[in-house]
Write a structure and sequence with these properties.
Length: about 550
């Protein structure tokens, strides 16, 4: 009986595995074939579109360089009214002839800016789009695609007033929509154009979820058909995207794979039913023979699954009369140990995070404290006011450094710390400093101890290493979606090569070897990790001949943009 059951289980398992492999290979082959066919259709459609775009550009350039168009404005000044009108009619007839042989061009127009003369092949076309043209290129206006060429042609005008006339070619929207049908290879697919990632042009209604998914996934990589997978409530989709660089748009197709695979699934339903019947019979026989064994193994498997997914409080009820009781006891003991280990790990992680902040507070230069105390001792008899000022600033400085218990502080409080530090240094040395903080920025919250190390570097490596240097300036300004904090000094400035090496040094992914530059690397890495890749440090010479270090903090990442 056991051998029969073993053979039955082996035969059933082998059948299921072979069927699964066959179905998976068939489905993958069908999907890959469909996707490759769709890619070929997209490439073919893109080649046709490039031909249409090239045709429009050729027409625009042809009439921009045509002598009758170029000299029309000057000839009109010497010709009479009748001759001038005839000349205009000749130009109109010439551009009308263009549309006779073109299936994709809807309109050709010429606009002279000096006297606002406008010639168009389409009645009702206004000159408003032409008046706003400042350069040669493609424009999307009211859902229509235009190519504009300006004269002078060889050298682009620096300002719009230098433009003498504009030639515009408008493509037929219906023709572009017709190209979308050529990008489809099945009834389960659809396509649309996406201009500037926002303007959608299609000949059918497109699911908004598909559009949003495409906008979030597409990339501007020319000459490649990019493939994306999207899972929606009604099934799985394959989205193909072709970036058209010349018009900054995307040709996007999407196919619902469920509709493609349904015929294949229906062909296997009979086999599934047969396998299901065999499986039910087999499970019944196996359950009857190994009822007690199977039930306990399944219970143990279920509890392991729960533990695998983080349910460390799960336990198996002990039953002394069960042959699996010792195994269940071992399982319960193991889970208790795992739960205790994770609790310990969570506590250790929290302590480590608190230790990082304490480490920042502990990075206090003892020489700074010694020098300040010596200054107090030396001035105690001769200048009590200086002693009081030094003691006040020193107390405020160390109170901030030692009481810091938050992972975020305000810009104002950080600059107040720098003010105390610079006041102490100004009492010990001849240092002039200034801090500019707009009132609407001071309450913005940042990570602690981002500004102070740079201020200390300005004193230690800038002013103290350059004879006669004595100025420090801290400026805070809004910049886009964040702030820019610049610390400048008139001390020693590195060469251009040294500045480049310093910037490369702080941009490294790994911690630099040695102790040189660790502080700046740490600040730059904290900025990028907390506020995104647009944040970080920058170095440049200033108008004093010294070095300026700027911190750019981009708040858009933490605000959800």
């Amino acid at each position: 009986m056991k051998r029969f059951i073993y053979f039955f289980v082996f035969f059933l398992t082998l059948t299921l595995i072979l069927f699964y492999v066959m179905e998976t290979l068939s489905a993958n082959t069908l999907k890959q074939s469909l996707i490759q066919s769709s890619k070929n259709q997209v490439i073919y459609t893109n080649s046709m579109l490039e031909g249409v775009l090239s045709e429009a550009r050729t027409y625009a350039i042809q009439y921009t360089t045509d002598s009758s168009v170029r000299y029309y404005e000057s000839q009109k000044q010497v010709l009479g009214t009748y001759d001038s009108q005839m000349k205009k009619n000749d130009i109109g007839a010439m551009i009308h002839n263009t549309l006779v042989s073109s299936q994709s061009v809807e309109m050709v127009g010429i606009y002279w800016k000096s006297d606002e003369t406008f010639i168009s092949t389409m009645s009702g076309q206004t000159s408003e789009p032409f008046k706003k043209v400042t350069r040669r290129g493609w424009e999307t206006i009211n859902g229509s695609l235009y190519f504009f060429s300006v004269y002078p042609y060889i050298k682009q005008p620096n300002i719009p007033l230098d433009i003498q006339f504009v030639v515009g070619v408008k493509l037929k929207t219906d023709y572009l929509l017709g190209l979308l049908d050529k990008a489809l290879n099945s009834n389960n697919a659809d396509a649309f154009f996406l201009f500037n990632k926002t303007l959608l042009v299609g000949n059918r209604t497109v699911d908004p979820d598909i559009v949003r998914a495409a906008q979030g996934m597409i990339a501007s990589i020319p000459d490649q058909v990019l493939e994306y997978r999207y899972k929606a409530a009604d099934g799985n989709y394959v989205i193909l995207s072709q970036y058209i660089e010349s018009i900054d748009s995307y040709l996007i197709t999407y196919t619902r794979m469920n509709d493609v695979l349904n015929p294949l699934n229906r062909n296997h339903q009979v086999f599934f039913i047969s396998i299901l019947v065999i499986l039910i019979i087999g499970l019944f026989v196996i359950t009857m023979f190994y009822r007690n064994f199977y039930r306990n193994v399944y219970l143990l498997h279920k509890r392991f699954y729960q533990v695998e997914h983080g349910e460390y409080g799960t336990r198996i009820k002990e039953n002394p009369g069960n042959e699996f009781d010792s195994l269940f006891k071992s399982f319960n003991h193991m889970v208790e140990q795992i739960q205790a280990l994770f609790d310990s790990l969570a506590t250790e992680t929290e302590l480590r995070q608190n230790a990082e902040l304490k480490q920042l507070q502990a990075q206090i230069n003892p020489h700074f404290l010694y020098n300040s105390l010596f200054f107090i001792m030396s001035m105690a008899k001769t200048s009590p006011d200086a002693v009081m000022q030094m003691s006040k600033h020193l107390a405020e400085y160390y109170r901030y450094m030692t009481k810091l218990d938050s992972r975020h502080v305000t810009i104002a409080s950080e600059l107040e710390l720098s003010d105390h530090y610079l006041s102490i240094m100004a009492l010990c040395k001849q240092i002039d400093y200034r801090i500019e903080l707009p009132p609407n920025i001071g309450l913005r919250r940042i990570m602690p101890l981002m500004i102070q190390p740079i201020v200390e570097n300005a004193i230690q490596h800038g002013i103290e290493e350059h004879q006669g240097a004595h100025r420090v300036f801290i400026a805070v300004e809004e910049l886009g979606g964040g702030v820019k904090i610049t610390v400048s000094n008139d001390g020693k400035v590195p060469s251009a090569e040294e500045l480049s090496q310093l910037l490369n040094h702080v941009e490294k992914e790994q911690v630099p070897l040695g102790k040189q530059g660790i502080g700046l690397w740490n600040i730059n890495r904290r900025l990028k990790n907390s506020y995104g890749k647009n944040s970080g440090l920058n170095f440049f010479p200033n108008e004093w001949g010294g070095l300026s270090v700027s911190l750019h903090i981009d708040f858009q990442l933490e605000e959800g943009d």
